[in-house]
Amino acid sequence: MSxxxxxxxxxxxxxxxxRVDGPLKVSGKAQYTSDFHFPGLLYAVPVEATIxxxxxxxxxxxxxxxxxxxxxxxxxxxxxxxxxxxxxxGIEGICDERRPPFEDDVVRYYGQYxxxxxxxxxxxxxxxxxxxxxxxxxxxxxxxxxxxxDDEPDQVLTTFGMRHRLDSQRGDPDAAFATAPVKLDETxxxxxxxxxxxxxxxxxxxxxxxxxxxxxxxxxxxxxRSVLAQMxxxxxxxxRVISKFIGSGFGSKLWPWTQCPLAAAAARQxxxxxxxxxxxxMMFQSVGHRPRTQQRVRLGATPDGKLVSLQHDYVYDxxxxxAHHEDCGEATPFQYSVxxxxxxxxxxxxxxGAGCDMRGPGAxxxxxxxxxxxxxxxxxxxxxxxxxxxxxEPKIDEGLGLPFxxxxxxxxxxLGGEKFxxxxxxxxxxxxxxxxxxxxxxxxxxxxIAARFPAEASVQLRDDGTARVACATQDIGxxxxxxxAQLASYKTxxxxxxxxxxxxxxxxxxxxxSGGSLATASVVPAVFSAxxxxxxxxxxxxxxxxxxxxxxxxxxxxxxxxxxxxxKADGRSGGVPFADLLKRANMGLVTGSGRSEGTFGNPKPEFxxxxxxxxxxxxxWQPEIARLRVSRVVTVIDAGRILNPLAGRxxxxxxxxxxxxxxxxxxxxxxxxxxxxxxxxxxxxxMTVNADAPPIEVHFLDFPDKEINEVGARGIGEIGLAGIAAxxxxxxxxxxxxRVRELPVKIEDLLA
Length: 752
Ligand code: MOS
Known about the structure:
Layout: H1 22-26, E1 42-48, E2 54-60, H2 62-65, E3 70-74, E4 106-107, E5 113-119, H3 122-131, E6 133-138, E7 155-158, E8 161-164, E9 166-170, H4 173-179, E10 182-190, E11 202-208, E12 211-216, H5 221-231, E13 239-242, H6 259-270, E14 274-277, H7 280-283, E15 293-301, E16 307-318, H8 332-335, E17 340-349, H9 363-381, H10 385-391, H11 409-420, E18 432-434, E19 437-449, E20 455-462, E21 467-470, H12 480-492, E22 499-502, H13 519-544, E23 558-561, E24 564-567, E25 576-577, H14 578-584, E26 589-596, E27 610-622, E28 627-638, H15 645-664, E29 696-700, H16 724-736, H17 747-751
Parallel strand pairs: 1-14, 12-13, 16-17, 21-22, 28-29
Antiparallel strand pairs: 1-5, 2-4, 2-6, 3-5, 7-8, 9-17, 10-15, 11-12, 11-14, 15-16, 18-19, 19-27, 20-21, 20-26, 23-24, 24-25, 27-28
Helix pairs in contact: 9-16, 12-13, 15-16
The structure holds dioxothiomolybdenum(VI) ion.
């Protein structure tokens, strides 16, 4: 798109920068959604279905409604109209559970909301919700874990529109597989995983006449506005969504869930602000999860490891009504060079809540399967797994037939191998030892999409020498406040501490989702163009204001750098700071607006744009006590220019920690009797904790991607989770000789 700019070493871009919002967070001043309080605020607690399949026959609300402090018990008969919504153009009107709450009496999953208690206090609302008596017509739920694809047409509707179930195809994969000298045919299973951000999903809804304000824990306030405007039959100008600080979401907060319209509907009926905060248990039921996947991978290869055929056929589970697409085949067509390939998918309906994006949706389970298969092939043909990948490195994206904008995967392997000491690996099972422990060494590659969403931003320069940058994107905790400050500081010369960043509010210029690891790349051109426009206005003011020292000049003779306006020929020292100029002109501020187009979903791209990387993992194994630990990880990431290496490293470390959970701990189990997620709390849903986190070494390659934006920055929020589970299971095999193909790896698996 644009030429990558030379960024001087003194620039805030590329400089490790502590979070500008850090002091607000550690001092407790940062207001998360459920921290906002309003006069007359009421509290809502949903009544959750305790069956997963059936029908509500009777709701007895009498006892609940009589409790002191209870304002209302809402249900299908009295909640008022809530309309259905439809997706619009691009990222608009998207949600994973489309059915408006209470639309019918059918219960399709455990925990579905069937009534809502509203009271003066949270405790009263909870007691009232518990006091609602429900009679069901109950049927056996289907939460079967073995997945057979439902009988569906070749093209199916998904959250993102129609998708061909034949995802990608080239050559003749069947024939090439049939005649391949070396064949691998294995199925890899990833379990349901539940997004568990620290901050619970929450909504506070306030009506003023026909305008609705929502404080919503959201990774996409602009999309949330479009969904809620539709659900309440309002022009979108009448809906404002605010999400100032987010205690993460890992994807589950990308699109609004049903608690949001419920809070809004209750507030409408009662004429008071209503707050609804989910319980941790509800987080496992009604706000999404990573679907279970079952992926058959068939590799055909020559005896020296050259791929001749790759087939990736995957099935995932979905809710009864919804169609979140778990795009496991996203990276399969381009990651390796192979002339014959096919990727297909199928889906299986279950009595569970809607699935959703979870950090690295699709690609994370998909890359796990493909990288696991590559590691097995390497063992089969007795070639080092790094060498096998180098042998199969593609020159172009063979799926799209396009060049990569920037791909440095081989350099990742080289640096990672060197830092890890990979050349010392001896391939025999259990052949490496240290301090009485058996060591297992494994590796895997990784990749994740890179693109931009459309974005708008504004930059203000003010007469006190400060600046403000505004964009209706969000900071889910990854460092977006800081990124925007860095970008604005670089362009305006205003130091970071004098830059105000405003985001998380639909009243600001429309910004991108905090999703797909695309927010940073998306805002760069919008902020730059907003800053350029603000500076252009300054130069006009400089040449047209009688009090300006440049009044006689042509604006083409002037330049702006480091916060000063000066005559190019005279150099920067002769100029004036912009604050002086604004004061002389009696102006409080000057504002520039910027917008940039998206590239995500571009039907005619010129380049294949992705980030790449690899993980090298060491595990220790004590067979005497069946103790397995991940003891060391080296990760190398090629994600273009890194805006903030401090926050960037933090993203990758966090993803590696989460990847240890994916490999060894995390899975949500459904009770076959009542369909409930059984381990729906943070004690029983096991995640990686500090004690499980090994030393993690993160390295970034620094190859700015000139196709993505002016600074060459792609995204880093998700890629660190791709591949890590395959590297761990491969290390587990190296240590124990046990090949685990269903995550997470359990102690029982290793005792076999
Ligand atoms: Mo990410 S799963 O796109 O929030």
